[in-house]
Structures are given as C-alpha cells and as structure tokens.
Amino acid sequence: MRKCITIVFFVLISISISYATVNTEIINQVNKEIFYLYQIPEYYLQNSNSASLNENTFDQYNTFAYGDMFGTCKYSNLTNISEYRYLGKSIDNQNIPNYNYSYDMKSSIDFSEMNWIYSPYNSLIITSDSRFDWVFNNTFNRYRDSLLLNSFLAGMHEQHGNPLRPTGDHFDETKDVPWQEIFHVVTPPTKTTYGLAMLWHISDLDGKLYYIDVALQPFNKLRGNIIIEYKDMTTGALVYPSETRLVDDGQSLSITAIDIPGFNYKGAGVDYIANPTITTVSKSVDVHYAYEYKKQTLYVTFYLEKDTASPNADLSGSIEISSDTFDASRAIPTGELVTISATIDTPTVFNYTSVLNTGVESYNVEVVKPYTLKWNEKTRHTSYHTSPCADTNGDSVVDDADDPCGGHTTTSNDPQSENGVERQTYSVDRSYSYYTIYELNHFELDLVNVYNPKLSYLDPVLLRASALGFVPEDIEVLQQTGYINRPDALGTNAAWNASLNKYIVTLPKSTYRRSSKPSFDFFDEADSAVGKIKVRNDRILVNGIHVLNDDWHLGSTPLPAPIPKLRSAVLTLKDYLISHRIFNGYGETTGFIEYTFKRQINSTLPLPSVAVTGNPLNIHTPVVCDVSANPEDDYDQRSDLSGGRVNVPLDYVMTVNFDTENWHIANKGYGYRDYGIYSKYKRISFPFDVYVSSNKNELIGTPDTLFYLKKNNWHVVPISENAVYFKVPHWCDEGDYVINTQVVSLNHRSPSGYELRANLDFGNDIAAQQIPIVVSGRIFDFVVTGVSDKRWLNQFSDLSTYFTVGSNNKNGRLSNRSIGAGGAWPYTLPIAPGKNTDTGLEDASVKLGYPVQFALKTIGDYFGIDDLIILRPEFYRVDQNGLNREPVDLYYLTGQQYVKVGSVHDQLKHRISLNGLARKVSATELIRTADTIKALGESITGLTKEAYLKSTLDTTYVCKPKTIVLSKALRTFIGSYANLPAGVDKHRAIAGVQMWYGEYLLPNSAIVVPKGADLFAGYRDNTTSIFEDGFLIVHMKIDAVKDMKVTDPKLSYVTDTANEWLIEGYDTSSLTYEAVAGDVILYEIDKHASDDLVSE
Fold first, then answer.
1. Could you tell me if 582 and 457 are in contact, meaning their C-beta atoms sit under 8 angstroms apart?
2. pLDDT tens-digit profile of 229-243?
3. pLDDT digits (tens, 9 = 90+) for 583-640
4. Which of 134, 264, 673, 912 is most buried by its number of CB atoms within 10 A?
5. Rounded to whole angstroms, how far apart are CA atoms 554 and 485?
6. Separation between Cα atoms, residue 615 and residue 618, nearest integer Å
7. Residue 893's pLDDT is what?
8. Domains parsed from the chain with CATH numbers
9. Exposed/middle/buried for 702, CB within 10 Å: 0-12, 13-18, 19+?
C-alpha cells in the first residue's frame, strides 16, 4: 500500500513541477484530452471574465481555476488549515467550490432521502438565489456518460461516503437515485486532474436551500487492477508469479493463459474477490472492467492441475523388419538377411514439475540525515528617557509622543545555530519468487526387444542402444543449495553493513531555518535504497537450452521453459540371419522399449516399458519341384502308345531331371529363379523296387545291390544333382505307376504339407511332383541259331555261334558278344550272300525248303499260359544284282493245285520240339525253367515241373509259311538271378526274362510271283509272271501277345517310335542289295532243297 501511495505522490509532484515549468504544455495536453472526451476544442484558454489560470490553485488542488480563491475563509477539519469556499472561476465564470471546505451544516439525513433539485441549471430556485445566480446551463449539464458518472460516484464515495473522513458517511450507492440528473458540472475532470460538481437540496428541517460539492475524480483514479494468477487447483498455491495489469474504466480485454510446464489447464474464474469460482474451461478469458467503489481489483485466476501422467503416456515407437530383396511382410525365405529397425519416438523420457516458491523478506534500513538548525532569538531592551519629550533615540520622533511614560523598548535579533544527526531505521519488504524442482523423472533408452516367432527361434532379438550408436540427450539437472541473495544497495549514498546486518543510507546535510528539528520521514529514501532480492531456480539444461534457468535474477526468476523437443531414435540391426530352424508361417511382430534409470527426484514411478508393434513377418521358404522323366520313345515297344504316360522299359536306365528352377509366387524376390539354395534335399520314391543312382554308369549292366531301393522308400538326391537315374529290374511287373518326387525346404518340419510343383502356400514346405509312367516289357535279341542248308551248317557248328541283328544289345550299346569279338560281332543278319565265311560259299544264300532256326527274348510279364510270340513274314524279291526290291506273293504246289501262302487254303504246318538239337537249348536252361515253373505254380504255365520237362521232347506246331506262333511250349525262363538284392524272389527274377525258340520253313516248291498275281483257280496260268531267279527276302514282323490277344499285341519289334532292329545295330549299308531293317533271310529263288537230294 505504501508503494501505491508513493507512486501517486510522485505523479502529483511530477505534474506540479511540469505545470510550474511548462504551463503551456500542460494546458495543451489537457485540452487535447477534453477534446477527445467531450469534443470541446481549446477548452482552457481564458475565461469569460478575462481571468488567468491560477498556478497555485493547480499546484495545491490539482484542478484548473481562473483567478484567485475567494469567499468565506474558515478552518477546515479536513486539512487542518483555513480554506476558502471557492477555488476560483471556471471557463464559464462559474464559481468552483473547494472540496476541502467544511460543511456549513452537517445533516444526519442520508443523501438518498434528501430533496434534491433536478436539472439545477434550469431551476429558478437556484438561479434566483443571489448566492448561486451564476449557475447557468453549460456543456457538461447536457453531457452524461458512464465515465463521467463513475467519476462523480467515486467523488461521492471519497468525500461523503467515507466513514474515516470528518465529513461523515452519508452516501449509499446501492440506493436508486438518478444522480446524473442532479449534479451540476462546474469544471470537468480529466485523466489526471479533478473536476468539480455541485448538488442542491431543500432541507426538511428549515426549508432552506443548501448545496454540497463533489470533487469529480481523475479518470486515472477510476482505473482498476486486474490481477492474473495461476494456481494449483489442489493446493491453491501459485505456480507462476502473479501479474497485475492496469485497466481503464470501461476497458475490455482478452487474457489468454500461458502454458505452465508440468501442469494441465482446468479452468478459469473472474471476480472481484480472490480465488474466484471456475466459470469457463476456455484458456482465453474476456474481461470487461467497469468502475465500482471498493471493487477496483479484479481477479482473473487460472486453475491448473499437476500433470501426474505416467512417463509412458506419450511414449510410442514402431518396429520394421525389412529386406532389400524381399517384401518381408508378404514373404521371405529362411536363410535370408533382414534389417531390424526400431523407431523410438521418445528414447529419452524426461519430465518434471516445478513449484513456485514465493515470499517476502524484510530488511532494516538506517537513514542518517545530518542537519543544521539556524534561527534568530529576539531580545527586548527597555530604556527610560532622561529628558522627557526629547528625541532620545535619534529617530526624529519625540519620545513622549509615543511613550507617554517617557521610556523606550527595543528588540534585537540574536543568530543561533545547532547541528544534529537524525537516525531513523525502517523495515522495507522485498518479495521474491523462484522455481524449484518438485518432481522429476529421467529415463534413458536401454534396449528394444523384438519378438516375432518367425524371426527368432526362441528368444527375442535385442537391439541394445549402447551397441547400435544411440547418443543420449545432454541433460543437466542441479538442485541448488541456496536460492536467495540479499538485494544490492542502490545509489552512492547507500551501503550494506554486514556487521550491523542492515543497510545504511547517508543523506546529504541540510540546513533548516528553525529552532526545532522538523518532523522527518525517510521511508521513501530507505525504500529506494534497497534493490530487489536476487533469486535463482534449480537448474535444468537440455541440450544447452535452459528449461529451468539458474542464473541470478532480481525479484523473480523466469518462467520454466517448455522442454525442447527431444530427438527420436532409430536402432538398426543389419544383416540378421533368419534361421532355417524357423518354420514357414505368419508371425506378428511385437516388442518392448526398455529404459534405464538416470535420475529421479521425489518420484517412485517405475521404469517405463512400452509395448510396440511392427510389420508382420511371413516366412515362406520357396521350393520348386520341376521334374521330368526323359520320354525314351526310341525304346517304347508298346503297340498301344496311348495314355500319355512316360514309358519306362524294363532293364533300361532312365533319367529323371530334377530341376529347382521355375516360377514361384509373384512377390518381390520370388518369381522365376533357381530355388535350390532354399532346398535341403530332393528325393524320389518308386512304387516298385528299383535301382537308383546319381551316376548313370553305375546302373549299366548288373548294378550293385547298394543301389537297390525298395518300393515306396525315399531316395535322397543332393541339391547339387540335377538328375537322378534309375533302372527298373526285369522282375518288376509291367503296368501303370506313379513316381513321387519331392523337394524339401531347408526349414522343413515333420509332419509337413506338400504342394504340387511349388509350395505356393506358405503352410507347405515341400514341393512335390508325380510322374505318371508305364513300365513296359521288351522284345529283343532276335537271332538265327541255325540253317539246315548244308552250305551253312559249318557256320553254326559252334553252339555259341548265331547270327544277331547287329553288334548292339537291346539298349543300343555294344553287346558283350561284340566286345568279346573285339568290338564288332561278325555274324549279323540277314542270312544272305556275303555272310557265309566258308571258302567258296561267300555268295551262298539259303535254298528254298530248308528250315531256319531262330530265337528271341522278351522281358516282362510274358510267362503266362496264353502268352505268345507272333512272327509274320513278309516277302520281297530283288534281282540277281540285289536291285529292284518289290513285294511278292508265294505259292506252292500240292498235287496239281497251287496254294497261295497265307490263304485259307494254306494248310502247310511245321512242328518242332523245344529240346531238339537244332534249338541248342541247354539242359541247365530247361531244368531252371522247370524249377521256376514249380516255384511259381502251375498257374503260370499250366504244367508241373515233370510235365514241362517231358513236353520239351514233344513236337509242337510252330508255323505256317505266313505265320509263326511261339507258345509256352517253346519258351524258357532265363532271367538273371546272380547278386539278387535281399528279399527278391529268385524264381520271379528268372521268369522275368523269357527266351522263345522257333523255326521257319518255306515249301521246297515255293513259287515267287509279283504281289497280287493270281494263279487261276489254283492252276498255273502260262500268262502269269513267275520269278525264276533273284532272291526272295523274308522280312519279319514280330509281336508279343498277352493272353491270346492276337489282334492286340502288347509289344512289337517295330512301333511308331521304336525300331528294335536299328537299336540292335541292323546294318543295311554294308549289304549288296536293297535291304530294310527286319530282313532276316534271303532265299535263292532258283535253288531248292530238293536239288540236294537229286544231286545226291
């Protein structure tokens, strides 16, 4: 309160000094204000009576008045001095009442009950009164606004409604009185000067006219203080230094709350009393100030609540698992490298709340004032005349004229002085405010654990901040040991005395012309000699930025600054290998951000652990099973090639191409490529026993049993091998089968699903493929074992000598007999000129009528009762030079009739026995066959062992000239049984290869005619062309028949894709005639077996 008074004092002094020194400037300033307020130009110039403004009046009363004060002068109990009734004249020459003049008569009636005169400037009661005849209408009687009314009401309170003033308390503003119609403005107020108004009333006691005057208050005195406070809603304590704003009457303004770190805004209240009730939750408050007596302080209080949110509240982050090659969220194989990145939005958890500490410190100030008092003391002297009525003192006055007593008194001034020192001690107050840390939490990032069941086999992946380059924020926290330092002494005449613990202010010496020391009041000097208290906050420094500034400040410290935005962090772990122990599948990524303690103050919050998520990981280890079996069409002797299956000949090395390159899913990193790097192994399974190897040569001939694989078992193929070879043994049953192949991924689990060709569904980790096959038999190794023509007997004298198709075996390789013969077997078909090695017989061929013995082999299921070999000879003729090959028909003569070979009349039959000498069948072969029949049962041949052996001596029908039929009676079993794998039936192995023996005979009387020529009615027509010379070629078509299905043969020596004659090396280039593979015998047309009988 003292400070406010001091400020007003200096304002008044300033105005007073300004007016005294710059009169014109003050008048101009006030005139501008009156023009602004009332639109009256140049109000204060010279009044209507040509009087001038009185500077002394302005100095003493702070109002403008023209001329001297006048009227009755009497003692005022307000100022304790004599006061004139009027201060002077107004611009309109109206009397300006003195607001310090005492009442003429004090009434006990409240002002609200008095008989007031309305519109006094128009009232005859007033204007007819000689005391007030100067009252007349002026501008300010018409001008009324709230500002002027409030100035009047403030003056009423100050003069007539203040119980502390001698004038008493007669004014009650709450009473409904239209004061704006009652008071008369003599001179107007401004912001800094008083105006004066008068009111008249008729007394109820004596009926006389009385008046009161009112000092219209300067508008600045109508100002209010808006005190803006920020308080903790719970404790009521200030959390920020209060702010006071000075507002004019009628002023509106908007006040917006500032953000206080560590606190949340809850609401605001506005009232003329402290701690107003919350009326709004808006952070912006609209305030309108209207002057009311004793309500010049308006409180705007913002209520806040301490932020007690967990450090986890705003913590967040994310995890990303990525790959340069793959879209890890959609599909990525095991064995690939990924980058694991964890984004931590708040790697440094730092929060705090501060508390505002306020207080007042009192300091003693001793003011020392040296002074000197100077005065004159008067001494009276009385002398008596020695000569009455004489001029005794030389003043040209006869003494007795003034002093009838004849004496004379004189007074003399005796100068006096006294020095002294005035010492007065004052207590001055200094407020202060500073912030301290109330609560603080500081946690730093430690690690992020990342868990995805498809990323790590068991434990989470740990991304440790210290190992991955995380740099913590630079945060410095300091709690001070002291927050307050005493103020500095201000001015050169003030100093702090530590020993006396007070300030000493030494004022300059003054001289007073009086005999007693004046009344000293040095409070203002004491107050102005002490500065503000030095205060500081606790220190919080974040990355060089002050959050709590701990520099020393005067009186109050800066508001805590917001915590600057802290850096986010990214922890990146590169080249993380996805283990092959991870199975295919989809995995969600979760994790936790873990922190470590750095510092806590007044807090028990636990370490944060923030759950985060990331992109999923879809493990899809791709495998491709792209297999194919080489379709060995050249060796496909099946007569019926339909069915679309791959032919697998018995006892033939087949190739399965096992590729891992092909199309997969269309995701990034997949597509068309080689997927072998993701494959653990390949494997193949057969529904029959088989020889299998990655080396083809190991299966040629009779393979080692090491390579034998039982049916329905897996054979593992190394990933590096792109082909696997297998050979179906001769004891396997013919028929349709399916070969199963698989490629197994490196992260294979058991049991597991599989998918054909490629594991497009990540739920499978095996790619599979089936190869439909047909296991077929073979018909091969046709040989001529003997020719009865004596010219050829020597060629077959060795039981091991026979004429083969060529130098190759059934699979096109050089046969063992050829290898034994030095690389080429010399005895190859056909039986023709040039093939006889006897001297002189080089050009010999075979005479008609001689039988030719032959044999051939089959592999497969041709050991049944009704299985047959059918040979169908075709006849061609070439001339003596081996040229002009053409098809021909044969006839032979029976009695006087010609029978066409192959016609219905052809009844010529030929019978042979299996055990005949010409067959060259060994006893061992026959016994082994008999044993096999016995072991396998009669159902195979329909014979017992004994019956079979006996039947070999019996003759059986073998052929007609056009058809050769080899039945079970001419069949033996010759399958190899050496080094059989364990579990294989020996007799089934023996029965798996069959040897068929036959003999072919053309009639001695055979006649060769062009194809289609007809010997009329069986008789020779002399017009019919008959070939008398040249060579008759017998070309064989050979079929294997199952179950007597003669019209539907199972195998053929020549099919649409295979030609066994050529496979076995039938050589037409070395022959001297126009040969075709399959030509077996060349007969000399002009020579007959009967020729030898005749010659003998």
1. yes
2. 988 888 888 888 888
3. 999 999 999 999 999 999 999 899 988 999 999 999 999 999 999 998 888 899 998 8
4. 912
5. 10
6. 10
7. 86
8. 2-220 (no CATH), 224-306 (3.10.20.320), 353-389+407-443+473-554 (no CATH), 626-776 (2.60.40), 779-907+955-982+989-1095 (no CATH)
9. middle
